[in-house]
Amino acid sequence: LRGSKSFTAALPGETERNGHGLGYKSVSVGHLEAPPLSPSRLSLGRASSTATSTAAPEQGRPRDYLVLAIFSCFCPVWPINIVALVFSIMSRNSGQQGDTDGARRLGRMARLLSIVSIVLGTIIIVLYISLSVRGNPAF
After folding, report:
1. Region (Disordered): which ranges (predicted)?
2. Is the dihedral of CA 25, 27, 29, 30 positive or negative?
3. Percentages helix, strand, coil for the chain, rounded to the nearest 5?
4. Is residue 31 situated within a structural domain?
């Protein structure tokens, strides 16, 4: 047996006589009139997700430097560039949750660690190439 979503209720106005002398009207659950919300209850509510999601990207979303962090993963300084990648992902998650200050802070840290990783990686590669060429003379 399925339950019905309609019931009979005593509502003021637009009632019909049902033979018992009482005014009743058959209505469905979706058509009940709710009392208007007071202004204080409206202000305590959270903003709708459509209003916040459309306004946030327009106001300069903080950068997460994910591409730079991925590029730094090709340098041979593994612990630093992996941490930079993690900070970049954390920055992206913070930005999506609306924490712009945290996203900026984590994004700056990801950028710094990515740059350090790229610089150190370049130095290591140059040193390796120069030492391997000097160690094996072509004569």
Report:
1. 1-21, 38-57
2. negative
3. 60, 10, 30
4. no
- DSSP 8-state secondary structure symbol assigned to residue 60: T
Please tell me the distance from the alpha carbon of residue 6 to that of residue 44, in angstroms, as a whole number. 32
User: What does the radius of gyration of the chain's CA atoms come to, in whole angstroms?
Assistant: 32
pLDDT: which is higher, 94 or 59: 94
Q: Which residue has the tokens 């058509």?
A: 31
89 contacts 63 by C-beta, under 8 angstroms? no
- The encoded tokens of residue 6 equal 């309609």
Per residue in 52-91, pLDDT (tens digit) is: 444 444 468 899 999 999 999 999 999 999 999 999 999 9
Look at the chain and report how many structural domains it folds into.
1
Decide: residue 5, CB within 10 A, 0-12 exposed, 13-18 middle, 19+ buried: exposed
Domain residue limits at 106: 64-135
Question: Exposed (0-12), middle (13-18) or buried (19+): which is 113, by Cβ within 10 Å?
Answer: buried
Tell me the C-alpha distance between 10 and 23, whole Å. 6
Residue 117 lies in a domain: yes
Cα separation, 103 vs 90, in Å, equals 8
41: Cα separation from own chain's centroid: 27
Q: Decide if 44 is inside a domain.
A: no
